[in-house]
Amino acid sequence: MINSWVIPIESEEIINFLKQEMLLKGICKKILYQKIIESAAKKHQIAIAPEEIQTEADNIRHQKRLENANDTFAWLKEEMVTPQEWEAGIINRLLAQKLAKHLFEKEVEPYFAQNRLDFDQFVLYQIVVLDRQLAQEIYYQIEEEEISFYQAAHLYDLDEQRRYHCGYKGKIGRWNLPPRLAEAIGNASIKQVIEPIAIPQGQVEEYHLLMVEKFIPAELTPERHQYIIERLFKKWLESEFDSLVHNH
Q1: DSSP readout, 178-223?
Q2: What percentage of the chain reaches a pLDDT higher than 70?
Q3: Domain ranges for the chain
Q4: Which among 127, 152, 154, 201 counts the fewest CB atoms within 10 Å?
Q5: Is the pLDDT of residue 107 over 60?
Q6: Residue range 121-216, CATH number
Q7: Around Cβ 124, how many Cβ atoms within 10 Å?
Q8: pLDDT band at 2 (very low <50, low <70, confident <90, very high)
């Protein structure tokens, strides 16, 4: 039994609720992921030192502005978690991070070199409308210099925020775009307006006009280094999970 505030809830009720909400499979998958991580960490002799736990706990306290032990205990009580359970969760996260680094640290640079184009970024402007004919008319008006891309975006774009910002989509990576858009951008010149591209969205199609204002070549920054480790680790975890499930 779990005492939730003052209302007792049976563990079986939690499981039934997760089933009813179609959440149980995802929870079970995360539990199996943790078992895979623990097994691999043991195999590679990876452990978490007490000072690492303390540092991470202090970081969490700082983020949540928990100024003293009483604040921390009150927060844990509100979350229905014991200090021991909180520490176990910290260990699980740190173990995953250390294992990921151990397994894939040396693979980051080769992966980046092989997939460098995927990490290119663009300062992108975009106009999205729902009508093919309107999209073509906007394109021709821009080409004939009857209206600028920015003016057209301010008038026609579906997205309110982009209208306010005259079509500014932001700095975006190739991997964040649908394949058709990524391919078109990769073949375009700076400031070139790309003809409307149809992208299915549910039962309708959106028509995208694109313009790249700036091309940002990929660099292996510390943030991207960590992203690649996490990406490779996630792929490895999924592979280990599939193997575990299919062998039972």
Answers
A1: -HHHHHHHHTPPTTPEEEEEEEEETTEEEEEEEEEEEEE-----HH
A2: 97
A3: 2-111+225-246, 121-216
A4: 201
A5: yes
A6: 3.10.50.40
A7: 20
A8: low
